[in-house]
Amino acid sequence: xxxxxxxxxxxxxxxxxxxxxxxxxxxxxxxxxxxxxxxxxxxxxxxxxxxxxxxxxxxxxxxxxxxxxxxxxxxxxxxxxxxxxxxxxxxxxxxxxxxxxxxxxxxxxxxxxxxxxxxxxxxxxxxxxxxxxxxxxxxxxxxxxxxxxxxxxxxxxxxxxxxxxxxxxxxxxxxxxxxxxxxxxxxxxxxxxxxxxxxxxxxxxxxxxxxxxxxxxxxxxxxxxxxxxxxxxxxxxxxxxxxxxxxxxxxxxxxxxxxxxxxxx
Length: 265
Hints:
The chain has helices spanning 11-14, 17-20, 45-63, 70-90, 100-117, 121-145, 152-155, 167-193, 200-209, 211-222, 233-264. By secondary structure, the chain is an all-alpha fold. The protein has one domain (42-264). It is elongated. The N and C termini lie far apart (81 Å).
């Protein structure tokens, strides 16, 4: 009527836009009360990401300590990973592909257990580094092959389900997952450098210390999930997938080198 818009179609429907769609300020992205992963343990979604890290943390803490039995450094994480996967699959997450961090950990520790039982000296030397490479692959792989970025499977429980497939939610989680993937690539390189006797302590502290800012970034950045506006979403996600692909190529190269080193030890 004021010449500000040109419209085709049902003009009466256009006049009802205000009643059909809520103003942005009235839209709530918060999860309804009680929304969390299914199961008797009342943990929120992001707390389950911490739980998924526990087997890996036990492994990293104990693996390089002289005198610690492989029954502890590998057996304990394997048992813990099996319990976590069993619980998550039993309560509402029947598709193991939706639990890449948990199932990937179970697979790694099962293989590590088999190598430990054979007293493989190569694994004893490089197992900790390989664990970081595997973790990098799990995080980056979800950006190229998964239904959602790895972190999204945990953080989505803090938001309304209508937001789960929205670009304002997917993009920040893609950034977070890309960050974790490359963080573990750097950690693997630092772990390799830590084999140098004079620099072992320095590189080991830096390697595991990197996870502190990574967890802080995940917590802080995720809070902006409903505030980001992504221009040209597909192009932006394409760039993230490109760097995820570069990371996976790096992971493949590191695994190849580690395999050669393990054979030659």
